[in-house]
Design a protein that fits this description.
218 residues; eight-stranded mixed β-sheet; two-stranded antiparallel sheet; alpha/beta; 30% helix
Length: 218
């Protein structure tokens, strides 16, 4: 697996981010990549129509998975959309751990981008939306992507490309609070840490990758 890209709650509902992200991802050719996502503000909009929250979040994640695949296809990205419960792709084990069906994902064609949601089924065969950091860590541990990308939630980072930025800026999670990137961290990861590069969605021709703001370590 070349890389893992995490599309967080806020950015998932941001059309400008998704446009910039898609434009970058289509230029970043890879043999195989995986994009993971959960739900977004779309859940609350469904609740406002009268749906129960439990039903709304399930509907939201499934709809978003389908929409992302269609959206990325418009940019020429060959995607396969998978909700975690489908084909037993993501399961919760009896000891509470998360198990990825790595043999299935690895069997998918080269050049494929897997768009994987955090909607799984628990041991009682009930739908469960697991936290996005939990899914991301399971993918890291079991699929061993070459890189993991988390994206800034600062709207300015969607349109400003800084070619002079250093990709060697390392910072620990314990140092982020109060730093110049503190406000750029997606909310669900502020207390639920993961080793990743924090990036802008824009493609930097100098780096041949997403533009790195910081390399975040434990």
């Amino acid at each position: 697996m070349d890389y893992l890209a995490i599309i967080d709650y806020k950015n998932l509902d941001n059309p400008l981010f998704l446009k910039s992200f898609a434009e970058a991802a289509v230029q970043r050719r890879s043999s195989k990549a995986i994009f993971v996502h959960g739900d977004s503000d779309y859940t609350d909009r469904l609740i406002q129509t009268g749906m129960m929250r439990e039903d709304a979040i399930i509907r939201s994640v499934q709809d978003l998975n389908h929409r992302l695949v269609s959206f990325f296809a418009d940019y020429g990205i060959a995607c396969i959309g998978i909700n975690g419960f489908q084909r037993g792709t993501v399961k919760r084990t009896e000891d509470g751990d998360i198990k990825i069906n790595t043999s299935y994902l690895k069997s998918l064609p080269e050049g494929t981008v897997i768009v994987l949601s955090s909607l799984i089924k628990d041991l009682n065969n009930e739908y469960e939306v697991i936290p996005l950091p939990t899914l991301a860590r399971a993918v890291q541990r079991q699929l061993e992507p070459g890189q993991t990308h988390l994206f800034s939630v600062d709207s300015a980072d969607e349109i400003i490309l800084n070619h002079s930025i250093s990709s060697d800026k390392a910072i620990k999670w314990s140092e982020i609070k109060g730093s110049d990137i503190g406000d750029k961290i997606p909310t669900e990861f502020s207390e639920n840490h993961i080793q990743a590069t924090l990036c802008k969605p824009l493609y930097n021709n100098n780096l041949k990758s997403f533009e790195v703001l910081a390399d975040i370590t434990s």
